[in-house]
Specification:
The strands form two sheets. Strands 4-5-7-6-8-9-10-11 form an eight-stranded mixed beta sheet, with helices on both faces. Strands 1-2-3 form a three-stranded antiparallel beta sheet, covered by helices on one side. By secondary structure, the chain is of the alpha/beta class. The radius of gyration is 20 Å and the shape is globular.
Length: 333
């Protein structure tokens, strides 16, 4: 005998992402304006030495960004500032450039690097599965190439020949794929000097030891990671999909990535740590020589996404100093 679903039954939660996003049994998607972790407002006041404004880079999709530039401490007189592009984390499912924690982090980057910082939004899953986020990020860089020359707010301060592309977690994954797509010279006359991957969201079907060792109390658990993957991967795909596993069987060889210098930041207590370290080591080996074009830094005692979660912390301060040094280093001839 066949049993039919009760049409009067109330929809129930099938997937829950930190209380910010819920997928219901009837396919309804519920998004909350709440933040996924506590925010202390006193710690997120605007920086006196940075001005910022919002803009839209894709009117059709309603995708925006937040732009920052220092008003003081801009370096030697007559020199324009480097540009740092930033893509936020959130498992490709949650997050916005307007969230207070990401805003605070970008304020800090703009003030302490110093640099012109552009924090871009992108379409989120499950409404938009991958590769939507990657397509939006590529469109963001194409938009920036034009705006750096035409928008006085940017053109007066930003050096289009010193652009760095960064992102944390899902944003770090995006930065990797942008490196494959554009490299260091694919957006002429804008030049990308380097890519900065902060705890990039790379996984595989075969779990690493850091995944197996991850605890249920970690900021990013295996359960949470699996939930995100179910929501954002293309239909029928698993974690070895090239958009998720850059070292997978169907992924392009890292030898073909002409991206110049790359900084990879991992966190000791992150379940993604081993995959991040392996990525950096494989990328270094793919260059075919001993060089300092690929830098790996592992933060002891920190968990996944500590930059986005704790933008005012001492660890984030050290991370900003590492990024500043990386951006100031001249590319090898």
């Amino acid at each position: 005998m066949a049993f039919l679903a009760d049409p009067t039954a109330q929809p129930y939660v099938v997937e829950d992402c930190r209380g910010v996003l819920q997928l219901l049994s009837d396919g309804t998607i519920v998004r909350s304006t709440a933040l996924p972790f506590p925010i202390c407002n006193a710690e997120y006041n605007d920086h006196d030495g940075v001005e910022w404004k919002d803009a839209v880079y894709d009117t059709g999709l309603g995708l925006g960004l937040r732009m920052y530039k220092p008003t003081t401490n801009a370096g030697e007189e007559g020199n324009k500032l480097p540009v740092l592009v930033y893509f936020h984390g959130g498992g490709f499912c949650i997050g916005s450039c307007t969230w207070p924690n990401f805003h605070a982090g970008c304020l800090r980057l703009a003030a302490e690097l110093p640099a012109v910082v552009l924090s871009f939004d992108y379409r989120l899953a499950p409404e938009h599965h991958l590769p939507a986020a990657h397509e939006d990020a590529a469109a963001a860089l194409l938009w920036l190439r034009n705006e750096l020359a035409s928008d006085p707010w940017l053109a007066d301060a930003a050096d289009p020949r010193k652009v760095f592309v960064s992102g944390e977690s899902a944003g770090g994954n995006i930065a990797h794929h942008l490196a494959f797509r554009f490299g260091k010279a694919g957006l002429d006359p804008m030049r990308i000097e380097g890519y900065i991957l902060l705890m990039p969201a790379f996984c595989s079907e075969q779990p690493t030891q850091s995944e197996l060792d991850s605890t249920a109390t970690a900021f990013l658990t295996r359960e949470t990671c699996d939930r995100y993957c179910r929501l954002f991967l293309p239909a029928g795909a698993n974690k070895d999909h090239p958009l998720m596993n850059p070292l997978g069987p169907d992924s392009p060889s890292l030898e073909t990535m002409d991206a110049g210098r790359v900084l990879v930041v991992a966190a000791e207590g992150d379940l993604l740590r081993d995959k991040n370290v392996e990525y950096a080591e494989r990328l270094r080996a793919a260059r075919g020589k001993e060089n300092d074009d690929v830098e790996l830094v592992v933060f002891a005692g920190e968990e996944h996404a500590f930059f986005g979660v704790k933008p005012t912390s001492a660890a984030t301060g050290e991370l900003v100093r590492i990024i500043r040094r990386f951006m100031a280093t001249e590319a090898a001839c």
